[in-house]
Specification:
This protein has 307 residues and is mostly helical. The protein has 13 helices and 2 strands; from the N terminus they run αββαααααααααααα.
């Protein structure tokens, strides 16, 4: 039920807000650099995504609040281009609410690590929204794996709703895209994915925490490579570029093939979550294999360098 309702509401919501964006001229205009698409594409896909998951957020005030704040922050950035500092402060505020609700502040260092983790993930998911169909596809795959990892009916229903809504959004965003989610959608996706991980992490346990990282691994890998690449080349970490993992693949293979390969890579990393379940040995082994594969990706695609 959550999957089908999320899909239906997602399709209807994205369709409706796409038409509204066109009527209000809320569109993403190509600039030939960071926005290479050849025509104006309506925003507000994020509002349609929110419509898909909204019925499943009412059961938890903190999740509803943080999701609404993330959506609003992203929407304001889409419309008015907020300063990086203001966005960062708001991201920390959203993260603090999530951590306070699900982890608490009994262990201050553990809580601080989770606060930083959520902020990083918000920016990592946002960076992944740079190619038609990509962010929605990866979030859908992550949601499917989180369904098998999370405990509690609320979080399982939310993961299925997020899966359905993501696929509903992809009806309009699969290349060539007819609508973009904007920062509103990517911030919302990131907070919901963060909720899946943080909500299961009140108890410090290596064997229970490690599986939760793998459905987010691709986002974190690309983010880390981007930060190192910009720092290495003396660029601001807040400045965008077109040398993400998917950018380098798309220049070689085209958008659709690159999308397929990115989904395969992400599915592989997500699959390590099952290998990491159970005991410390398999968790360490899964981390080691994922680390080796990440190193090979970094070297083969030269993710630390600009093309």
């Amino acid at each position: 039920m959550p999957f089908f309702l999320g899909f239906l509401l997602g399709v209807l919501g994205v369709w409706f807000f796409g038409r509204l964006a066109k009527k209000l001229n809320i569109v993403d205009k190509p600039d030939g650099l960071l926005k290479p698409h050849g025509r104006e594409i309506p925003y507000l896909g994020g509002l349609g995504i929110f419509a898909g998951v909204l019925p499943f957020l009412w059961s938890d005030t903190a999740v509803l609040l943080t999701s609404s704040l993330a959506l609003t922050l992203g929407l304001l950035d889409d419309l008015f281009s907020l300063s990086p500092f203001f966005r960062l402060m708001m991201e920390f505020g959203i993260s603090l609410i999530l951590v306070w609700k699900f982890v608490g502040f009994y262990s201050i260092w553990y809580s601080i690590l989770w606060v930083l983790f959520v902020v990083i993930l918000v920016n990592a998911v946002n960076m992944m929204d740079g190619m038609d169909g990509l962010c929605g596809s990866l979030v859908a795959i992550s949601s499917l794996f989180f369904f098998f990892l999370v405990k509690g009916s609320f979080f399982q229903d939310l993961s299925l709703a997020l899966l359905g809504t993501s696929l509903g959004y992809l009806v309009f965003n699969f290349p060539p895209a007819r609508i973009f989610m904007g920062d509103a959608g990517s911030y919302l996706f990131a907070v919901l994915l963060s909720t899946m991980a943080v909500s299961q992490s009140r108890v410090v346990s290596f064997s229970s925490l490690v599986p939760l990282v793998f459905p987010l691994w691709t986002f974190l890998l690309d983010f880390s490579a981007s930060v190192i690449r910009r720092f290495k080349n003396k660029k601001s970490i807040f400045s965008g570029d077109r040398d993400h993992m998917y950018d380098k693949l798309s220049r070689r293979l085209g958008v659709r093939r690159s999308l397929f390969i990115m989904c395969l890579i992400h599915s592989l990393f997500c699959g390590f979550s099952f290998g990491a379940m159970g005991n410390t040995f398999t968790g360490v082994l899964s981390l080691a294999v994922a680390g080796i594969f990440s190193y090979l990706l970094i070297k083969s695609l030269k993710l630390f360098d600009y093309d």
